[in-house]
Amino acid sequence: MADTLTITDNRTGRTYELPVEHNAIRAKDLRKITTGPEDTGLTSYDASFTNTASCVSRITYIDGDRGILRYRGYPIEQLAEKSSYLEVAYLLLNGELPTEEQYRSWAWDITHHTFVHENIKKLMDTFHHDAHPMGIFVSTVAALSTFYPEARNIADPQLRRNQVFRLIAKVPTIAAFSYRHSIGMPYVYPNNDLSYAGNLLHMMFRTTEEPYRPNQILERALDLLFILHADHEQNCSTNAMRGVGSSHVDPFSCVAAASAALWGPLHGGANEEVLKMLAEIGSVDRVPAFIRRVKAGEVRLMGFGHRIYKSYDPRARIIKDMAHQVFQVTRPSPLLEVALELERIALQEDYFISRKLYPNVDFYSGLIYQAMRFPTDMFPVLFAIPRTVGWLAQWDEMLSDPEQKIARPRQIYLGAEAREYAPRRAPAGSGK
Ligand code: ACO
Predict the structure, then answer these.
(1) Is 258 a residue whose pLDDT tops 90?
(2) Has this prediction a pTM greater than 0.90?
């Protein structure tokens, strides 16, 4: 059996043989299928990239039908149980788990880049008091490019590496400062003795305690959520990271663009929407009526459904277990009961079964964040912090791939044919 695809063009009767590699054909090979010299060749139309690979990647593997997620080959369940966010970050960027020595040096580098320039603080001060923290986050990350102009030299691997440290180290600081700004509290500087997640809790919530010691279960829960959110192959924001990065702009601008993409309610903004939905439903007895509205197409069940996962999102399963642990040290959320009932009913209904709609990562994460006292508008920011490493790993991979060029999709033009410009005319009946 040959690894080829034979195509017969019924417009011309001609037959073509295209190579198949890794279960894919190269879209460019379609260009040789033409109807004549005037024809620039066949193209493939794939609105919203539902079946088009834009890159070769060795970072994250997802099997949506079987609910599998692996980083660099390691199952997410094992990493969630045994690893830490910083170790996973090293793995995603370098392809292998670190040795003890490599880990120590990596953690040192991250810990010693957590401070931001005092002018960054001044910049953040200029935002309106009720500015959305994600708006502040996106803008401040973009502004970092002006503080590190050498970051534009993306061809130098050492300089590239320096920006990676800076970004991973500084995003929690910017995130916490954006929150403190929004509630009018003084900024808390990083504490290098704490873990990555513990330091974020410290910068967010420290008031007068000296020293601040995060609750260990909450610190672990946050670290776990960071592991689960670290990468998810070619999703909307990663596609933005690669697309913007393909122009060879600096990585701060790329991460700002990816963060903006993440903010949308169909992507990283979904867990905020889940909480709004749960609050609107309010109590378990109102769940059946809400499900009826979903089935009638009036509303979407937020936190359900995924472009890739057509079975239970493996991250949702891990988060659901963690939610129970978190609620033992925080006040139990009344909305957890509503969420569990929604899931129970939805998983029995044909509407959801036939469309393969299952809880995704966002269905329970918002409840955990809320129990940890994070306000809902911080949820997308909490997603952007760990995803920064995924974006950077994908960006680095793209820049090292000789096949990658500036991203430039094609279009199918269906607009007006060429026509002559006509001078502006007075409206009919104006008498002019
Ligand atoms: N509630 C009700 N119906 C839904 C839902 C939902 N959450 N999701 C999809 N459907 C239905 C659609 O109405 C459609 O039905 P139809 O065939 O009768 O028209 C069918 O399922 C397929 O839906 P699509 O929109 O084509 O699926 P797509 O793959 O484009 O969308 C998406 C995926 C955007 C995640 C969608 O499921 C959704 O909007 N979910 C709610 C938002 C959400 O939770 N997003 C977080 C995703 S995870 C992440 O980004 C981290």
Answers:
(1) yes
(2) yes
Residue closest to 278 by CA, chosen among 369, 354, 400? 369
pLDDT value, residue 334: 84
* Smallest CA separation from ligand 1 atom 34, residue: 266
Residues identified as active-site: 267, 306, 362
Atom of ligand 1 nearest to the CA of 267: 50
302 lines ligand 1 (CB under 6 A): yes
Output the residue whose Cα is nearest ligand 1's atom 32.
306
Q: Whose CA is nearest to atom 18 of ligand 1?
A: 355
More confident of the two residues 320 and 45: 45
Q: Which atom of ligand 1 sits closest to the CA of residue 383?
A: 51
Q: Is pLDDT larger for residue 247 or for residue 267?
A: 247
Is 310 close to ligand 1, i.e. is its CB under 6 Å away? no
Q: Which two tokens stand for residue 266?
A: 């169909």
Task: Report the nearest-CA residue for atom 20 of ligand 1.
Answer: 355
Query: From CA 141, how far away is CA 365, in angstroms rounded?
Result: 24
Residue 359 pLDDT > 70:
yes
Question: Counting beta carbons within 10 angstroms of the beta carbon of residue 415, is it exposed (0 to 12), middle (13 to 18) or buried (19 or more)?
Answer: exposed
Give the number of other Cβ atoms within 10 Å of residue 99's Cβ: 9
H-run or E-run covering 89: helix 85-94
Residue for token pair 């803008």: 139
Question: Which of 354, 355, 365, 369 has most ligand 1 atoms within 8 Å of CB, for mutation?
Answer: 355
Going from the C-alpha of 366 to that of each of 13, 187, 271, 333, the distances in angstroms are 57, 24, 5, 11
Q: Is the CB of 300 under 6 A from ligand 1?
A: yes
Measured distance CA(382)–CA(253) in Å, rounded:
19
Q: Are the beta carbons of 339 and 367 closer than 8 angstroms?
A: yes
CB 387 within 8 A of CB 237: yes
Phi-psi category of 108—alpha, beta or left, where left has phi over 0 and alpha has psi -120 to 50? alpha
Q: What is the pLDDT of residue 119?
A: 96
Cα-to-centroid distance, 73 and ligand 1 (Å): 28
